[in-house]
């Protein structure tokens, strides 16, 4: 916090960015002993603040600085509403040597690239996403969270360091699966988790979705064909884990190719979906074009479909399980995560391609033994990874395929 660089906190609407700024303000006052008069909290959802800052950023910020020899902390919420925000933040950064900027944004920091362009070498950027499963468990049941985290730490060590481990018996798997059901049904938005009952959770998700459409899509991004945009979101919700066929999307949404690509890009950069591209090294036999898509939050994925039934009884529970595993992998790895599919339709759900390759297959089934699909065998035979993972419903196990250790891990600990 003592460095000069701008701190940018990015993430979807209602993921807790404003709350985090308030916590930073309290920390500065109580832990660092900063004079409250030197901490300025401004939201640019307030039109008056926005207009004054856009008209004259230097004069507006300067009006709060009463003592030139003291440091001031500006906590600026929702900076993506500011026109040419990157250029204006750079101006403040360059003109005021005694100012520390901490800003939040839901989209434009990534969508326009202007902020990054103007603040090269001057910006530290962080993402604040909906609660992970562990964070969700901490709210719901700290005892279960502790049990989960002990085994999740072993899984993480395996993935990152190839450190093997043994689980002889698991007496808590069903307890964690029950809570996983809640998490996959209503997601990880903080206000949704705090809600007391299912109807209240649905209302909050409706508010999150509609606010996103009204404020980000209509007001900020100027997309006015909302009916078609909502239709695309609903279509994508039903296509989680499947190959995207753009020609089908254009027909169903009464749109055209360029617009569909643009809107999916918007959804990705406003933290609604993540696009996963194919892994390929063999340019002859492996697919290179059509991606898959997953939602950042399962509750927001379920809302357009209007389906909040239990994860365990849903026909697409395999795809929902994939969505969860993909999001969890993003908490563990910095590397790009792909999927693998050949022209002969052999497929592996995920491939982590960092210094070493790790294929990951999601099989949300009641396994009794270490069974591996033909596709998984095919990948192992082609690439000989040191580690491969099969994600199961509740089965722990391992086996060797050549030089590859294949580890079977329950989804609840991923």
Detailed description of the structure:
By secondary structure, the protein is an alpha/beta fold. The chain has two domains: 6-127, P-loop containing nucleotide triphosphate hydrolases (Rossmann fold, 3-Layer(aba) Sandwich); 133-413, no CATH class. The protein has helices at residues 17-30, 47-55, 57-62, 85-95, 108-111, 114-118, 133-140, 142-161, 173-186, 190-194, 198-220, 226-238, 246-252, 257-269, 298-305, 317-332, 374-383, and strands at 6-10, 39-43, 72-77, 99-105, 123-127, 273-276, 292-295, 337-341, 347-353, 357-362, 387-392, 397-401, 404-410. It has a six-stranded mixed sheet with strand order 8-9-10-11-13-12, with helices on both faces. Strands 2-3-4-1-5 form a five-stranded parallel sheet, with helices on both faces. A hairpin with a 2-residue loop joins strand 12 (397-401) and strand 13 (404-410). Helix 7 (133-140) packs antiparallel against helix 8 (142-161) and helix 12 packs across helix 15 (298-305). The longest helix has 23 residues, at 198-220. It starts with 5 loop residues before the first strand and ends with a strand.
